[in-house]
Amino acid sequence: MSNFVFISLLFFLNSMLLIALILSSINKKSPRRFLKFFFLPILLSLFVSLAIQFQLQISEISLRQLFANSIVTLWCLKSFSSYKSIKSTLLQEILQSVRDLIYKKKLLSILVIVMRISFIQILCFSSVFSLNYLSGYSSLNYLDILGISLSILGMSIEIICEKQIKNARKTDNNLITSGFWNYLQHPNLVGLLLVFSGLHILALSGVGSEWSLLGFMITILIIHKKLIPEIEVQLLAKYPEYQK
Questions:
Q1: What are the domain boundaries of the chain?
Q2: Distance CA 111, CA 95 (A)
Q3: How far apart are CA 235 and CA 113, in angstroms?
């Protein structure tokens, strides 16, 4: 099985899982279900990619690969109860488009949107999928240790930031200026970027995984061109003092 066929199968599976998630959300009349489990298709596709590798004996499972898959698994599980505002910001236009298309019964247009989302998801996590194809030598090197450290650091920052946001909402709900926010403008997004940076560094030691750099670049573009500008607008509208 070639790398292209491997990724194509995962793309098809991920697309079908996204369609099932959207249909479930429509059936329950709850867009929150779609937002909550948005990364569930990636998690399931990850397990399937491991099963394909093991069943077809494409390559041996390495420590590098196990660490990368464990990090993404924890991150996806964490996403079910976090990233609410980020996912809402990221998917608001898509949800509205899907609602309109359902009302107009344009199923083909819905399929195109789903495939576009699936394609972006697969690309953003391409570093791990590439490791699940050919993960390279089993032993860890300095780059692997750096990648694992960055991902763990990033996820730790995210967890601390999410806890601080929840505490702020329970109390005065004022603009957060303490903790990491005393030093960084969007520390939760910095943590997110560190997680994906670490995963890509891990992928550098895989065989033929250079193409996954495209996914990392897309992740950076999504954060800097989509998330940050829209979050800035929301913060300025809610907190006039944010400009200062």
A1: 3-243
A2: 13
A3: 29
Residue 59 CA to residue 18 CA, distance in Å, equals: 28
Contact 135, 206 (CB under 8 A): yes
Question: How many residues would you count in the chain?
Answer: 244
> What is d(CA 50, CA 108) in angstroms, rounded to the nearest whole number?
31
Residue 162: is it exposed, middle or buried by C-beta count within 10 angstroms (0-12/13-18/19+)?
Answer: middle
d(CA 162, CA 22): 26
Report the predicted TM-score, pTM, of the whole model to 2 decimal places.
0.89
The answer to whether 127 and 198 have CB atoms below 8 angstroms apart is no
Three-state SS letters, 23-55: HHHHHCCCHHHHHHCCCHHHHHHHHHHHHHHHH
Over the stretch 28-86, which tens digit does the pLDDT of each residue have? 777 778 888 899 999 999 999 988 888 887 677 888 899 999 999 999 999 988 877 77
Query: CA-CA distance, 194 to 151, in Å (whole number)?
Result: 6
Residue type at position 209: S
